[in-house]
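The material for today's practical consists of a large collection of protein records. Read left to right, the backbone structure tokens trace the chain's path through space. An example says more than a description, so a record of this kind follows:
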Amino acid sequence: MTFSESVSTCFSKYGSIDGRAPRSEYWWFVLFYFIAEFTAGFIGQITGGEETANVLSVVVALGLILPSITVAARRLHDVDMSGWNQLWPFTIIGIPFYLFWVCSPGTTGPNKYGDPVSQIKTDQT
């Protein structure tokens, strides 16, 4: 999955946690999130200083929070785990576990959350 495919998929599934997301979709969206935040902060600093940068960063974060949560849930579904496991990093000790899960390859074949995205694409062609 390419960068643009990942971003468009995450926005088209804006509020949907159904299905699975491969590693590439998740990590490309994480990169997009950081680029968007950096750009908002940079533009804010140029146009109005630190206060404007903070406001723009909050606006971007609020606009991207739902797709970020849903792509993380779908990523965890790909490794056959519940989307609720993305709450583990809030315990601090759960950060390494969460990183391990989102970096792990997805389960091969179907799991309780559906078919892998790569398998669906090849079946449709």
